[in-house]
Design brief:
Blueprint: E1 12-13, E2 20-21, H1 24-56, H2 67-102, H3 107-125
Helix pairs in contact: 1-2, 1-3
Amino acid sequence: MMHMTFYWGRKVTLLFDFWKTESWISYSLTLLAVFLFSVFYQYMEDRRLRFKVISSAVPSVSSVDTPLLGSRLYSKRQVAKFAVAFLFGINSAIGYLLMLAVMSYNGGVFVAVVLGLFVGYSIFKSGEEEIVVVDNPCACA
């Protein structure tokens, strides 16, 4: 039976047919797993943004000025762009899995995801300036 409204109970099927909870212990372990997965999502998002800032700090050297160094820096920039894109893909997959978990319409799963995102954001974003990456500083672009 698939619920189409929020319900509170220990019997939930989460993401896969084999991930079913029948007892309070399995339900509690499921909520703990969802909570930790949400915290991990915030950790990965923080790492991705930090890596994007670091990768954009690679100096751009024109190949006319230094023909031998230009190609090496260009390849480092390409590797960094690929790594940022890879982390974005991983983080998107985690985010979609969390969204699908919430779509089980179980109130406990919803609360575990929201609390996990809150705790993860508090741990990995607290006390720091927000990281803003501007690819093009021109406002008209």
